[in-house]
């Protein structure tokens, strides 16, 4: 595949000219991150010693994934280019997804030990990534001693679990104390509040202030909502619905994408969520082809403004309409084409400040044919996505691109040069996405041609010298033979 060129050539062609991303312990900010979102139990089962009543064939039961499994298979995430690993809740829980907390002061025994969690944190940091966990508060187990000892802190849910009243000052104190102790003991880099839309805004602000007095870590939401004081980022309202409806098949209405992108800066952007169905289920329902659909969707997600959050299994087009079907065990023994595409896009994003935080200008959107520009003072990119059933073209003006430029395509190896009328005409086949780097027009490379001439001359001289030496050797051998005959 043409796209695979970037894995081997990106470092030579782009990384030398673009600033490399800061390592996890330097200047990288939340706006620069890309987040890979997993559930510990559904990633990889490394140890059998913590497989208590594990039933790998039952999607509603613990399936065996553990901290050690994440540690051993960390390169799968690293090689896709993600910079933050979000692993969900880690506390003792009655359910595999960690939401039904039994004890905030203990690790879930199916996941592993304190030592194994510490090793995971260290391994993540050794790979220049950051680690984030979830804080669930709205489906607490009836067996939690807080529920037993302080029922006034809670309201009961229909399923028999309990929701912590985060407006209760005493309940706030208890939760802040336990989370503060956790981050003091373990060098995690971020927290995500689950079901954030149900939490008291004043509590979120207080929680943020007190947690960040201990260490300045990320604090984000898991819900589509308007920004709240104390949260570093929330999920962009409407992002899942807009992205899903735009890419579930070709020839879809994409008119909502420009407004979505214009509002996405500083927000979390995602097409999937561990709270709901998989985007693949929408694609299948619309009779789309998941590999192609996901390829276009990832191009959009990893080049538009915002902080991308990608759920585990999206790289293999995991399906599922409802929980727990959408929380399947990750199958790593799959075709790597989509994984490579994610790696290519993330490598590009990590190397380009313009793609992470640059200005956005939507240049064209019509009937599934989308073109937009990401730029800053140092560089300019053009992203073109043809999500239609026919070949499409569009001419960009000199005012939009500049004069004497060329558009270097990175995945389809296309080069778009300025035409006689000054325009740049982009043409893409159906269901194809391309990312173009805007660079100065390249004419004949005089230095390169001169070097070739010099090499040619040197080579010819070398051949001449070899020929002369060979001729002289033959003459010497002939003379020696004549002398021997005379004797």
From TrEMBL:
Q: Which SUPFAM superfamilies match?
A: (Trans)glycosidases, Glycosyl hydrolase domain
Residue intervals passing through the bilayer: 447-467
Record's keyword terms, sorted: Lyase, Membrane, Metal-binding, Signal, Transmembrane, Transmembrane helix
User: What GO terms in the biological process aspect are recorded for it?
Assistant: carbohydrate metabolic process
- An example molecular function term from Gene Ontology annotations: lyase activity
Gene3D superfamilies registered for this protein in UniProt: Glycosidases (3.20.20.80), Golgi alpha-mannosidase II (2.60.40.1180)
Q: Which residues form the Glycosyl hydrolase family 13 catalytic domain?
A: 37-349
Q: Quote any Pfam family the record assigns.
A: Alpha-amylase_C_2
UniProt-listed InterPro entries: Alpha-amylase-like_C (IPR054174), GH (IPR017853), GH13_cat_dom (IPR006047), Glyco_hydro_b (IPR013780)
**Coiled-coil regions listed:** none
Signal peptide positions are: 1-24
Cofactor(s) needed: Ca(2+)
Identification of the protein by name: Alpha-amlyase
């Amino acid at each position: 595949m043409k796209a695979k060129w970037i894995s081997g050539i990106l470092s030579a062609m782009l990384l030398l000219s673009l600033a490399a991303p800061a390592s996890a312990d330097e200047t990288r900010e939340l706006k620069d991150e890309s987040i890979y979102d997993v559930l510990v139990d559904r990633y990889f089962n490394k140890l059998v010693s913590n497989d208590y009543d594990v039933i790998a064939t039952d999607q509603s039961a613990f399936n065996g994934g553990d901290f050690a499994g994440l540690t051993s298979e960390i390169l799968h995430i690293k090689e896709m280019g993600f910079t933050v690993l979000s692993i969900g809740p880690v506390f003792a829980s009655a359910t595999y997804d960690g939401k039904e907390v039994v004890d905030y002061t203990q690790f879930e025994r199916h996941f592993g030990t304190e030592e194994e969690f510490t090793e995971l944190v260290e391994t993540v940091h050794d790979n220049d990534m950051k680690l984030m966990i979830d804080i669930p508060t709205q489906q607490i187990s009836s067996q939690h001693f807080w529920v037993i000892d302080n029922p006034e802190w809670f309201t009961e849910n229909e399923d028999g679990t309990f929701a912590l009243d985060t407006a209760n000052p005493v309940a706030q104190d208890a939760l802040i104390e336990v989370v503060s102790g956790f981050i003091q003991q373990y060098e995690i880099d971020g927290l995500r509040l689950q079901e954030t839309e149900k939490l008291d805004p004043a509590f979120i602000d207080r929680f943020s202030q007190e947690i960040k007095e201990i260490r300045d870590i990320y604090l984000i939401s898991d819900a589509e909502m308007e920004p709240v004081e104390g949260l570093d980022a929330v999920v962009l309202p409407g992002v899942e619905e807009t992205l899903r409806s735009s890419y579930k098949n070709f020839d879809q209405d994409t008119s909502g994408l420009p407004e979505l992108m214009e509002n996405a800066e500083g927000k979390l952007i995602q097409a999937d969520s561990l709270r709901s169905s998989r985007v693949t289920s929408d694609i299948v329902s619309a009779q789309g082809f998941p590999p192609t659909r996901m390829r276009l969707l990832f191009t959009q997600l990893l080049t538009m403004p915002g902080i991308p959050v990608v759920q585990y299994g999206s790289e293999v087009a995991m399906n599922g309409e409802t929980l727990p079907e959408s929380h399947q065990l990750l199958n790593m023994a799959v075709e790597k084409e989509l994984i490579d595409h994610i790696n290519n896009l993330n490598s590009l994003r990590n190397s380009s400040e313009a793609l992470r935080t640059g200005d956005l200008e939507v240049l064209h959107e019509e009937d599934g044919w989308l073109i937009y520009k990401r730029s800053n003072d140092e560089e300019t990119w053009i992203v073109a996505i043809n999500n239609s059933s026919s070949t499409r073209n569009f001419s960009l003006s000199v005012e939009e691109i500049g004069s004497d430029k060329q558009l270097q395509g990175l995945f389809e190896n296309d080069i778009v040069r300025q035409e006689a009328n000054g325009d740049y005409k982009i043409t893409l086949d159906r269901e194809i996405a391309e990312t173009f780097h805007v660079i100065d027009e390249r004419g004949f490379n005089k230095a390169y041609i001169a070097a070739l001439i010099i090499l040619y001359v040197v080579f010819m001289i070398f051949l001449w010298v070899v020929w002369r030496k060979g001729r002289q050797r033959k003459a010497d051998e002939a003379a020696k033979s004549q002398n021997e005959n005379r004797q």
